[in-house]
Each structure stands twice: as structure tokens, then as C-alpha cells.
Description:
Blueprint: H1 2-9, H2 18-37, H3 42-45, H4 58-69, H5 77-81, E1 87-88, E2 91-92, E3 99-104, E4 107-112, H6 114-129, H7 133-145, E5 148-153, E6 156-161
Antiparallel strand pairs: 1-2, 3-4, 5-6
Helix pairs in contact: 1-2, 1-4, 2-4, 6-7
Amino acid sequence: MPAMVDWVLEPLGDDLNTPLALSRLRDLRTLENVANVGGSAAAVHARTPAPWDPAPGVARASVLAAARVLGLLWHDAIEWRQGLGATFGGYMSAALTGTSTMTAMGTSVVVRTVESIEAAIAARLTARAEKNWAEADRIRAELTAQGIVLEDGAGSTTWRRA
Length: 162
């Protein structure tokens, strides 16, 4: 595995050749796909220093290790959609509790944490169960105004930052 990671990151030492490093990261992802669903790794092997065996999980671990060095793939898809790790004025949103108002260049922004968003969604679901449509709509409108998009599904509500 370290050889794969080193191979991906090696172009960074050559005048910070990030495009080549990203291309090699994609090649490792291709090896992982070949290991999991089949296909040919011949094109990738033509570019690598050794014909690495595409065993399931081996290339994936290298992709994650190299990507983190490049500042990529720090969050899973759900965390990314919910904006975890997003910075607001240099502060990590995940580090805040409740809600906080931050002012930058004369504009105030209410920043909600995951906990406060999920509490509002729970209150909305309770209002819906009680058929209090006005309250449910008010909570949705409040979240929408704060950049939170609700997606109602079968028996659950998911959310993401707009």
C-alpha cells in the first residue's frame, strides 16, 4: 500500500504537479473498481511502476490515504451534503453548539449545528403527527431561510445545506 500512495504523491515533489497526482489517484480508483466489479486494469498497469494486483480494498485504502494528503475525501457523502466541516468566518460549523450569529462584511448569518437542525426536524415531525400543519410549515420555512433543504421520504426526513 505505501508504494501506491508514494506513487500518487510523487508528482507533488516535481514542481507541485497536482494534475498528475489527481490522475494517479483516479488510476488507483480504477484498480479498486476492477477488483470489485471486474474489467481490465491493463491501461492502468501501463502507467504504474509495477503491475499491482487489484485485490478488493487494497487500492481503496491507498486512495483514501493519498486523497487525505491532498486535502480530499475528509467526509463521507452524507457529512459533505450536510456541510460538516464547512467554515464560516474561520470557525468550524461542527464545533458550534445550538445556533450562532456571525457577522461578516455587514451581513449577519445564522449558523445552525447538526443537533439544532435535527431538533427542528423532530419538532416538525411532531407537528405533522399532530396535524399542526401551520407549525410544520413554519419550521420548514425557518430552516429554508437559513439554507437548510428538507427532503421528505417514506417515513423520514433528510436534510442538506443549500
